[in-house]
Design goal:
The structure holds two protein chains of two kinds. In chain A, 18% of the residues lie in helices and 36% in strands. Chain A is α/β, with parallel strands linked by helices. Chain A has three domains: 5-103, Elongation Factor Tu (Ef-tu), domain 3 (Beta Barrel), CATH 2.40.30; 113-220, 3-Layer(aba) Sandwich (Rossmann fold); 232-317, Ubiquitin-like (UB roll) (Roll), CATH 3.10.20.30. Chain A has a six-stranded antiparallel barrel with strand order 1-2-5-4-3-6. In chain A, strands 10-9-8-11-12 form a five-stranded parallel β-sheet, sandwiched between helices. Chain A has a five-stranded mixed β-sheet with strand order 14-13-17-15-16. Chain B has one domain (20-331). The chains are: A alpha/beta, B alpha+beta. At the A-B interface, strand 7 of A face helix 3 and strand 6 of B.
Chain lengths: 319, 346
């Protein structure tokens, strides 16, 4: 259900900022990796002790000859294991697996102008989008907020490629990325894309809406790490399997640990691929996704395995 | 696999016919004795040897003649091939998909050599030897989609994905069953399917769209669709309705076997890598009633399907004028015996 997996080897690691490492991944068989559309991510499968950690990372770029991809990984404070594993256990030569690229953050190709807004690690998909726009001769601007020069892993490369299309906002110099400066006077057909910390994304979208921009012209990508919660038990009505979901595990991870090949694409509550029918819920469904509609949530008939949970005793799924 | 390409026509004197092998490999679309819409999508996995599903792109004995017919259509009406400017990356994706697949599976006929962006394409059946720079439209005699689809059987639509919908923003449509790219271009999935009866109320399109939006690279899917055509005419377009519409009134009990054709579309869909677009290919196979009844199971089953198909569907597919005559003719080949499950001949 999870699709094609590609074995890769880490060929280069770069400490790009105090908290971000960039990894270059090449196929272990030396073959070429598929081209990808800007905004795509892959899920990296990490062999941690006794379990597989799966995290989605946006693709930064693909080598000209197709031999490697680059991803950027932020060391998060509240790491559930994935980013810590990438920072502490992965070395040059480490072998990992990745899924085929999936794009849940595509460019709106017919757009007349593209405003790319990134904060911190949010630059990874934006970097690829800017490159695609540069290559097609599109009209675009990059607005990139960083803590300081040392925190902008991508600043030098972006400057070389995009010149004065890049606007940099350095927190250490009290430079503020103010949407009130960016949103006005854009031509009709302008599209805005934002990726960064959740608070930043919300603020940018809110200001866009308040400025009268149509929702269709505002794009964002939010990968939600699965929130922890109280443990509960899950039973698969058709497969006849019962297992426990630990407090630090997602429902999807618990099913995978039990050997169930459950459907997923983004593992971040965005794509809807892992939505399954709920047969019974002895407790309250805690929906943490960005996919189900308010009506679907209220109906309580569906749950997304990757980020949502049960506050209660047992959940019975139609699997 | 070495193919022998037939010299035949899909217009005027209609010399198209199927060899015995082509009849055996015909993608008969009914697995039961009745038909109703469903979201009949499955993985486009390699199928049995010599079947139309053996390879991702199926090339058969009609290849050269079909490409000649396409060229004639385009000469009369260049609007059958259209592409909005933002689809250029998807066009190149399609060049790669088709050239790679044709060269890999039919190496006697097609050859592709890649050295970075310097590509060399040889198409022996059509006598083409082309060197070009991948990504540089100026190095091909036609825009990329037009170039490669003038050399590949089947109609092709390129669908852009945005705003949670698919948009028909590009296509090469010369052998269609009564729909128009010129009319549909720029429409979204729900808009271009709006004329289809019944299916909308069944929620078929919502489910199909949701499925396609998550279509993954490297995991293409396919479905079969069907209609009927009077005379083996590929170009049954609204643009040329004056040329073929009246054919429907010419069916008599004496000529059903020759004139009436079952037309099956093998529709395959791929996620394209660079553009995130979807290519929707519509590969049409035609079989005359005389050819069809050489397979007893298909004769029995098609008689029952056509007899019982709902009125709205028959009307939408344009079968109403000749359905009764054809059912009466097919009845001679249906002894009422049970048919085995599945598509294949017994």
């Amino acid at each position: 259900m999870s699709g094609v997996e590609i074995p890769v080897r880490v060929t280069e690691i770069e400490q790009a900022t105090p908290t971000i490492r960039r990894f270059r991944l090449a196929r272990t068989d030396g073959g070429t990796l598929p081209p990808f559309a800007a905004g795509s991510h892959v899920v990296v499968l990490m062999p941690a002790d006794g379990r597989t950690i799966r995290n989605a990372y946006s693709l930064v770029d693909r080598a000209e000859d197709g031999s490697s991809y680059r991803i950027g990984v932020l060391r998060t404070q509240e790491s559930r294991g994935g980013s810590r594993f990438m920072h502490e256990n992965v070395v040059v030569g480490s072998e990992l697996r990745i899924t085929m690229p999936v794009n849940l953050f595509p460019l709106f190709l017919p757009g007349r102008r593209h405003l790319l807004v990134a904060g911190g690690i949010g630059i990874t998909p934006i970097y690829a989008m800017a490159e695609a726009l540069r290559r097609t001769g599109a009209d675009y601007q990059i607005h990139y907020a960083v803590r300081g020069e040392a925190h902008g892993a991508f600043i030098t490369e972006l400057r070389e490629r995009h010149g004065d299309r890049l606007r940099l906002y350095r927190n250490d110099r009290q430079e503020i990325l103010a949407m009130s400066d960016i949103l006005p006077n854009q031509p009709l057909g302008t599209h805005l894309y934002v990726c960064g910390p959740a608070g930043m994304i919300e603020a940018v979208l809110e200001e866009g809406r308040a400025a009268g921009w149509p929702a269709e012209n505002l794009h964002s990508e939010r990968f939600q790490a699965p929130p922890s919660g109280n443990p509960f038990s899950v039973r698969l009505a058709r497969a006849g399997i019962t297992c426990e979901v630990r407090c630090d595990q997602s429902l999807l991870e618990a099913l995978e640990a039990a050997g169930v090949d459950a459907p997923f694409l983004c593992r971040g509550g965005a794509c809807g691929q892992c939505a399954v029918d709920v047969c019974e819920a002895d407790g309250e469904l805690i929906h943490n996704d960005h996919y189900l509609t308010p009506a679907e949530r209220a109906a309580g008939k569906k749950i997304m395995l990757c980020v949502s949970r049960l506050a209660g005793r047992e959940l019975v799924l139609d699997l | 696999m070495t193919l022998h390409f037939k010299k035949e026509s899909f217009r005027d004197d209609f010399t198209f016919s199927n060899s015995r092998e082509a009849i055996r490999r015909f993608p008969f679309p009914f697995e039961k004795d009745e038909y109703m819409y469903s979201v009949n999508i499955e993985q486009h996995m390699p199928g049995p040897a010599k079947s139309p599903f053996e390879f991702p792109i199926d090339i058969d004995e009609h290849y050269v003649a079909e490409m000649h017919d396409r060229a004639l259509v385009l000469k009369e009406d260049p609007g059958r091939c259209q592409s909005l400017p933002h689809m250029i990356t998807a066009e190149w994706d399609l060049v790669e998909l088709l050239m790679e697949s044709m060269a890999k599976h039919y190496p006697e006929h097609f050859q592709l050599t890649r050295d970075g962006d310097a590509w060399h394409w040889i198409n022996r059946p059509l006598g083409i030897d082309q060197r070009f720079t991948f990504g540089d439209t100026a190095t091909l005699p036609h825009p990329p989609m037009e170039y490669i689809t003038r050399q590949c059987q089947g109609d092709f639509a390129l669908l852009d994905q945005r705003l949670g919908n698919l948009w028909m923003d590009s296509g090469m449509i010369t052998g269609q069953a009564d729909w128009s790219l010129d009319f549909d271009i720029g429409m979204n999935f729900m808009e271009w399917h709006a004329p289809v009866p019944l299916a909308k109320d069944m929620g078929v399109f919502e489910r199909a769209l949701k499925f396609l939006l998550n279509l993954q690279q490297g995991r293409p899917v396919r479905r079969l669709n069907w209609t009927m055509t009077i005379n083996p005419r590929l170009d049954t377009s609204p643009e040329n309705y004056d040329k073929w519409g009246r054919d429907r009134t010419t069916v008599t009990p004496e000529n059903v076997g020759d004139k009436v054709h079952l037309r099956v579309e093998l529709q395959a869909m791929w996620r394209l890598p660079r553009s995130n677009a979807i290519v929707f290919s519509i590969r049409a196979y035609m079989i005359s009633m005389n050819e069809l009844v050489t397979v007893p199971k298909w004769a029995r089953r098609f008689h029952r399907v056509l007899r019982d198909v709902r009125g709205e569907l028959a009307e939408y597919k344009g079968l109403s004028r000749y359905r009764d005559t054809t059912v009466a003719w097919l009845a001679r080949y249906d002894d009422g015996a049970p048919t085995s499950p599945g598509f294949a001949p017994d």
